[in-house]
Design goal:
By secondary structure, the chain is α+β, with helices and mostly antiparallel strands.
Length: about 375
């Protein structure tokens, strides 16, 4: 294949409207594999004829289609049969929407409120125009959700104040938020509405960011701008209610990229339905769960039952649940504290999650994606006694 036909991942991401991190996620899930991966540098390259499938993936993920169904649509050579798969998924989504609307209407009736009388809460859009080089325009609700997602990996510890901070990194086509509490690391990539030409990073107090999320959710879009002592969020209007500031932390954020680079390569990988995994964890009657990867199409989750008289776990009586999954690599058994695993799954994006495992005693890499990605490192634990 001539080099002139190859497109770098950054250029290809701009062409198809997907974030480069999302493209890496879809490649690892074998949904859209690069045309070439340089063995020396690891750089990924695509071809122009892959833009159509990439755009289709973006549209299918926008309606929350899970990865196995996306792969089935892409593999279907008959357009009518592919459309049937989309119809079936949309029918399920419409059914869920009716259930959601019915529940919302019942909640309004219980409150004695007519929803038609409520004011418009959509907020104000940012004014068009050219922003300064360091300014990043992004959706307010999306940014609030990202802060919530990575905040699960923050921790209030007076001895280590950096654990209660969130690192903001602005790049030409992405905004990255990262937090860590020593047991987890969460990193969320967003695709902004406008690009910066001057990259920047800032370590921001997480408590102040959490206090700002309610305000952000009610703004259609905001412009982020770093200052020497804070980060500013501003909307189009000039009144004082149209901006917020969160102070910078004097602490230096850990070099998380070096930590990620030092992790061993993935040996076992699984893609699971996020909602089903959450339901299983919510029913767990033990602080520790065991995940077994042995079959190519299932993951078994075991929860130690407890003897009511002794309150001790009895592993020999473990109830277990089998979840449908796409699994590759050698068998592996790994144990997690529910308090570590559940927030990582609950904060994920999209309908499914990818688990990348290298060893039972090393951090699990938990990934999910829509047009950006969310990744979390979660430390396993010892099995229940």
């Amino acid at each position: 294949m001539p080099d002139t036909e190859l497109i770098t991942i950054g250029a290809f991401a701009r062409t198809c409207g997907l974030n480069a991190s999302a493209l890496r996620f879809y490649a690892d899930a074998a949904v859209l594999v690069p045309a070439l991966v340089d063995e020396d540098t690891g750089y990924r390259y695509y071809t122009a004829d892959q833009a159509g499938p990439a755009c289709l993936i973006r549209h299918l993920r926008a309606v929350d289609m899970p990865l196995p169904t996306v792969a089935a649509v892409l593999a279907e050579s008959d357009a009518a049969r592919a459309a049937d798969l989309l119809d079936a998924h949309l029918a399920e989504m419409h059914c869920r929407r009716r259930e959601f609307d019915a529940a919302a209407a019942a909640a309004y009736r219980a409150l004695g409120v007519d929803p038609r009388s409520l004011p418009d809460r959509s907020g104000h859009g940012a004014a068009p125009g050219t922003e300064p080089d360091q300014a990043v325009r992004i959706g307010g609700p999306a940014l609030a959700a990202a802060i919530d997602q990575v905040s699960t990996a923050t921790l209030t510890d007076p001895a280590l104040p950096v654990l209660d901070t969130i690192l903001f990194e602005a790049r030409p086509d992405e905004l990255i938020l990262t937090a860590t509490d020593r047991y987890r690391l969460a990193s969320r990539t967003l695709r902004p509405m406008s690009s910066v030409t001057a990259e920047w990073s800032a370590t921001i107090d997480a408590a102040e960011l959490r206090a700002t999320t309610s305000w952000l959710r009610r703004r259609h879009s905001v412009v982020l701008r770093p200052t020497p002592d804070s980060i500013e969020f501003r909307t189009a209007t000039e009144d004082s209610a149209a901006s917020r500031r969160c102070r910078r932390s004097p602490e230096e954020f850990p070099d998380y990229r070096r930590m990620l680079a030092a992790l061993p390569s993935t040996t076992t990988r699984a893609v699971l339905d996020r909602a089903h995994l959450l339901e299983t964890l919510e029913r767990a009657d033990s602080p520790i769960v065991t995940l077994r990867f042995g079959s190519p199409d299932t993951v078994t989750i075991s929860v130690p039952s407890r003897d009511a008289s002794t309150q001790h776990s009895t592993p020999q009586q473990n109830p277990h649940t089998e979840l449908r999954a796409t699994v590759s690599g050698p068998p592996m058994t790994i144990h997690f504290a529910v308090t570590t695993l559940y927030p990582a799954i609950a904060g994920a994006i999209g309908p499914d999650i990818m688990l990348d495992l290298s060893a039972p005693d090393l951090p699990a890499h938990i990934r999910s994606a829509d047009d950006g990605d969310l990744r979390t490192l979660a430390m396993p634990c010892e099995p229940a006694p």
